[in-house]
Amino acid sequence: MMEISTFKRLEKVALKKSGTDFTRLGFSLFFMIGVLTFSFLSNGGISNNMFLAIAALIGAYMAMNIGANDVANNVGPAVGSRALTLTTAIIIAAVFEAAGALIAGGEVVNTIKSGIIDITAFGDNADPFIWAMMAALLAAALWLNFATMMRAPVSTTHSVVGGVMGAGIAAAGFSIVSWSTMAKIAASWIISPIMGGIIAALFLYAIKKSIVFKEDKVLAAKKYVPFFVSIMAWSFVTYIIIKGFKKIWPQTVEFLNLIPLVSIEMSDKPTMLVALLIGFLIAIVVYFTVKYRVGSNNTALENTKASVNALFTIPLIFSAALLSFAHGANDVANAIGPLAAINDAVVNGGITSNASIPLWVMAVGALGIALGLALYGPKLIKTVGSEITELDQIRAFSIAIAAAITVIIASQLGLPVSSTHIAIGGVFGVGFLREWLDLNDVDKTIEEEKQSIIEDKEILNALNAELLTLEAKEGKIQEDYERIVDLYKSIAIEKSQIKSTKKSIKQAKKIEYVKREAIKKIITAWVVTVPAAAVLAAMLFFMIKGIMV
């Protein structure tokens, strides 16, 4: 009877899961078929419009995979720290990703992704170029899909780079690739996570040292929380301006110049100095606002770490929204670059390294990302937020601020970085810092335990010696036999104590706040991304070419 009941429960769970999977698949197919139909009907008078419609279908598939994989880095820490529920995080990320793409997404995109291949190798023959871009787009989407299934957060940019490189090599040989650019991209595998990890760890250590480790945490929080939150505001405003305001910067300048005592010189894009100054002014306002809120009598603060953690919840919600907006504005256009390239080649009949992105192409990217995040994003959000290391609000805050500051520093130094690698590096950084901070306590505990073993062994030796003496004694009396029994009991207790202490030392040495298996899986996925996407794109190019020729 028990077995039948268990079987029925398993059957119910399986049916529910399969029903959910079919629903997700249904929404995905509906969106992709809708994009295919719209593209085909709206470009009916253009030759090769079927190519463009199929490319739009692949672009929709790619956009959903970006939402399922890449966006998790923006909201994962906030969800893992319980500053946001999973549902709320998905809604915020979807809205701000779409807003970033549609409002601040670039009008012109570098279709060949950072100049990794030389398009002059195609000459005036647009067909191989179109096939190569289709192969690149599909290969990047398939790789992202596979990585999401494996719960491995990978770089969308690197997936597209690998796809374009592989398809380019298949179309025109190895000489088409700019290997110096590829070397920089490979360098970002190391630069991005290390920079993100170090900055996140430094902020976490600073917060712990100035607030968490203090006896009077309430007084320390009132003094330092406004300072840390204002630094976050400064870095995020600067990050958003330099990465998300490129398209709408002229209109932004016009608006800012209407404010008294503000005068900004008109330019095509914001300079770092202007971004820093605007960020600094907003940070001052944030500092005094937070200082008033934290110092208010209405704010119930307790002298606990949990109470301090709660103060970072609202900044984390803002960080999730702003990171999503910046990602939508900066990365979506790049990810759908191959689709823009195909659209430009089909419509204009030529090849260009830079192409305007029509609104419908940008909409495919924006809506596809939002849908992919909602349908398939939870897997990677949980991986980033809780399956690498345990996060609370302070740790998640450190990761978020590290993401913004790392991008700012890297952009000024001209270093290639990946937002995915930065965020995951930040997660690693706070986890390893926790291990390092606890290392001294662990070492102290181990030394105390070792000393305890030495003392227990001395007692054990003394008991054994007394036992041997009594057992060798002739003419034992009742008290001697009673003492021998007591000695056996004491010896057993001491042996058990020594064994327990040794086990405790072994467990103390194994303290790990970062799951090593997760590290291996993620780093392997990072290293494999470019070559895997490249090989897949080359195979797809030859397949498409074989069908068309």
UniProtKB/TrEMBL annotation:
<feature type="transmembrane region" description="Helical">
    <location>
        <begin position="523"/>
        <end position="544"/>
    </location>
</feature>
<feature type="transmembrane region" description="Helical">
    <location>
        <begin position="421"/>
        <end position="437"/>
    </location>
</feature>
<feature type="transmembrane region" description="Helical">
    <location>
        <begin position="129"/>
        <end position="148"/>
    </location>
</feature>
<feature type="transmembrane region" description="Helical">
    <location>
        <begin position="224"/>
        <end position="242"/>
    </location>
</feature>
<keyword id="KW-0812">Transmembrane</keyword>
<feature type="transmembrane region" description="Helical">
    <location>
        <begin position="21"/>
        <end position="40"/>
    </location>
</feature>
<dbReference type="GO" id="GO:0035435">
    <property type="term" value="P:phosphate ion transmembrane transport"/>
</dbReference>
<feature type="transmembrane region" description="Helical">
    <location>
        <begin position="357"/>
        <end position="376"/>
    </location>
</feature>
<feature type="transmembrane region" description="Helical">
    <location>
        <begin position="46"/>
        <end position="64"/>
    </location>
</feature>
<dbReference type="Pfam" id="PF01384">
    <property type="entry name" value="PHO4"/>
</dbReference>
<keyword id="KW-0813">Transport</keyword>
<dbReference type="InterPro" id="IPR001204">
    <property type="entry name" value="Phos_transporter"/>
</dbReference>
<dbReference type="GO" id="GO:0016020">
    <property type="term" value="C:membrane"/>
</dbReference>
<keyword id="KW-0175">Coiled coil</keyword>
<feature type="transmembrane region" description="Helical">
    <location>
        <begin position="310"/>
        <end position="329"/>
    </location>
</feature>
<feature type="transmembrane region" description="Helical">
    <location>
        <begin position="185"/>
        <end position="204"/>
    </location>
</feature>
<feature type="transmembrane region" description="Helical">
    <location>
        <begin position="271"/>
        <end position="290"/>
    </location>
</feature>
<keyword id="KW-1133">Transmembrane helix</keyword>
<feature type="transmembrane region" description="Helical">
    <location>
        <begin position="84"/>
        <end position="109"/>
    </location>
</feature>
<dbReference type="GO" id="GO:0005315">
    <property type="term" value="F:phosphate transmembrane transporter activity"/>
</dbReference>
<keyword id="KW-0592">Phosphate transport</keyword>
<keyword id="KW-0472">Membrane</keyword>
<feature type="transmembrane region" description="Helical">
    <location>
        <begin position="160"/>
        <end position="179"/>
    </location>
</feature>
<protein>
    <recommendedName>
        <fullName>Phosphate transporter</fullName>
    </recommendedName>
</protein>
<feature type="transmembrane region" description="Helical">
    <location>
        <begin position="396"/>
        <end position="415"/>
    </location>
</feature>
<feature type="coiled-coil region">
    <location>
        <begin position="446"/>
        <end position="480"/>
    </location>
</feature>
<comment type="similarity">
    <text>Belongs to the inorganic phosphate transporter (PiT) (TC 2.A.20) family.</text>
</comment>
